[in-house]
Specification:
Elements (H helix, E strand, L loop, with lengths): L1 H29 L3 E5 L2 E12 L3 E12 L2 E13 L3 E8 L5 E3 L2 H10 L2 E7 L4 E7 L2 E5 L10 E5 L2 E8 L2 E15 L2 E15 L11 E15 L2 E17 L3 E15 L2 E16 H17 L3 H19 L5 E8 L7 E9 L3 H6 L5 E10 H15 L9 H10 L4 E3 L2 E9 L2 E4 L2 E2 L1 H15 L1
Antiparallel strand pairs: 1-2, 2-3, 3-4, 4-5, 4-6, 5-7, 7-8, 8-11, 9-10, 10-12, 11-12, 12-13, 13-14, 14-15, 15-16, 16-17, 17-18, 18-19, 19-20, 20-22, 21-22, 22-23, 23-24
């Protein structure tokens, strides 16, 4: 009986003390400041006040967004309930307006969206949230002429999730509609979704150039001007991922769509991907820091262009010994005569000293191109229709194709136009013929345009 009473007393003491322990652990976790990057945006979160009770707590925090011309703070309010293995947190944006430099359109959007989140904060660390937002409709009329509307934004109700731990960050969001209009131009996306998974970089921090996986898609995308559709995509999917070590970075970007419409052309089965391999991560980080410094100088355009070109050449010189490679692949249309196939391999080889003295000899390029003749004829007819038979400045598509065939830059066989380009050791070969003179003329032409 005595042991039972002692055990019961211990349970009572533990039950009384446990909420206090949970509250202390939750407070310690929330008060840890967080800094992360989304592209060039730096996002910081810090708790400003915390009032802890036995079974609940209240807190306020500030979310600071900085970068890309933005520098503002949003105040958040949190209601916290202590549970056995963690805490539930209800987060709402404060009634007051964001402070700092924030575009009026974004401030209005935040006020209408009224984002809210319900989160779980576990004792083992990390947080997971489900959030939602109200529909947003913004219409700018300050520069309207007659009945014209210079700008309009409509965003449907959205929902998503956020999970954070020291090992990864997961973010997702989806909405049924995004409609942006400016003058007579309009971008409409339906069934829009976004997903992001981020891992810390080799230094263990969520800083620049982290490892990530991104998924972005839309059931349909339409870009119009007046009553004319400039671009249309069905079942659009975009994905990207990046993996790195202390000195190496590899990344992949892929775009797919079931159908594509543009300028009167109707195409199918778009598949485009780009892969970057063996890029020197420290050089990229240093280039990003130098680029920020150039932007802060407010130099004249010609001086800024020359400085940026010098930075790029210096960065490539530091990278060349790591054999960086860029690969690209494009597939479009499966119909014979209208298909497009492009394979690209572009890399650097050699050493820094050789690149500084003879940069063209360090470039290794391979380009394999196939285009159906029927697609080119259809494109030429569309161009002729756009001009209503009026002469255009420069060379027409038919004239360019005749010149390319005469110079053996392209070949036509079985209703397919093809070209095979190779560049190595400073020499350019097109379909097996040496065209280095053409390469040098192109380089000198670009140099005159830069200086």
């Amino acid at each position: 009986m005595r042991k039972f009473l002692i055990l019961l007393l211990l349970l009572v003491v533990a039950a009384a003390a446990w909420p206090v322990y949970v509250g202390m652990q939750v407070e310690n976790a929330l008060e840890q400041p967080f800094t992360g990057y989304v592209g060039e945006l730096r996002i910081q979160h810090a708790v400003t006040t915390y009032e802890r009770g036995r079974y609940s707590a209240r807190a306020t925090s500030v979310l600071h967004v900085l970068g890309d011309g933005l520098d503002f703070e949003v105040e958040l309010e949190h209601r916290i309930g202590h549970r056995l293995l963690g805490a539930v947190v209800q987060t709402r944006s404060a009634a007051r307006q964001p402070r700092g430099h924030i575009p009026p359109v974004l401030a209005t959007a935040l006020a209408q969206a009224r984002p809210r989140a319900d989160s779980w904060l576990g004792l083992g660390g990390g947080i997971s949230s489900r959030f939602s937002s109200q529909p947003v409709r913004i219409q700018g009329e300050e520069h309207a002429v007659g009945d014209a509307v210079p700008f309009r934004l409509e965003l449907g109700a959205g929902q998503g999730g956020l999970a954070y731990s020291p090992e990864r960050v997961v973010l997702s969001f989806d909405t049924d509609r995004l409609d942006v209009s400016e003058g007579d131009r309009r971008l409409l996306l339906r069934q829009l979704y976004f997903g992001l998974l981020v891992h810390p970089g080799p230094d263990g921090r969520f800083g620049r150039l982290p490892d990530y996986d991104i998924g972005l898609g839309s059931g349909s995308l339409s870009l119009t001007r007046g009553d004319r559709e400039l671009l249309g995509l069905d079942s659009l999917q975009m994905s990207s991922n990046q993996n790195s070590t202390a000195k190496r970075l590899d990344s992949l970007w892929r775009l797919r769509a079931e159908a594509l419409r543009s300028a009167g052309l109707e195409l199918e089965t778009l598949d485009l991907n780009l892969t970057a391999l063996r890029w020197h991560r420290p050089t990229l980080l240093r280039f990003m820091e130098d680029l920020e410094g150039v932007r802060a100088m407010s130099l004249a355009t010609d001086l800024q262009t020359g400085l940026l070109l010098g930075m790029v050449m210096e960065g490539l010189q530091q990278m060349v010994e790591h054999d960086p490679l860029l690969q690209g692949h494009l597939r479009l249309n499966s119909q014979p005569g209208k298909h497009v196939r492009v394979n690209l391999d572009l890399g650097l080889k050699g050493d820094a000293e050789g690149f500084a003295a003879r940069p063209l000899e360090a470039v290794a390029l391979g380009l394999d191109l196939e285009i159906g003749v029927a697609l080119i004829e259809e494109l030429a007819a569309l161009i002729a229709g756009e001009t209503d038979g009026e002469p255009r400045e420069g060379m027409s598509l038919e004239d360019w194709l005749d010149l390319a065939v005469a110079e053996q830059w392209v070949r036509i066989d079985n209703e397919t136009l093809s070209s095979l380009l190779r560049m190595e050791d400073g020499r350019l070969l097109i379909n097996g013929r040496d065209q280095t003179v053409l390469l040098l003329a192109l380089v000198f032409g670009l140099a005159r345009g830069m200086f």
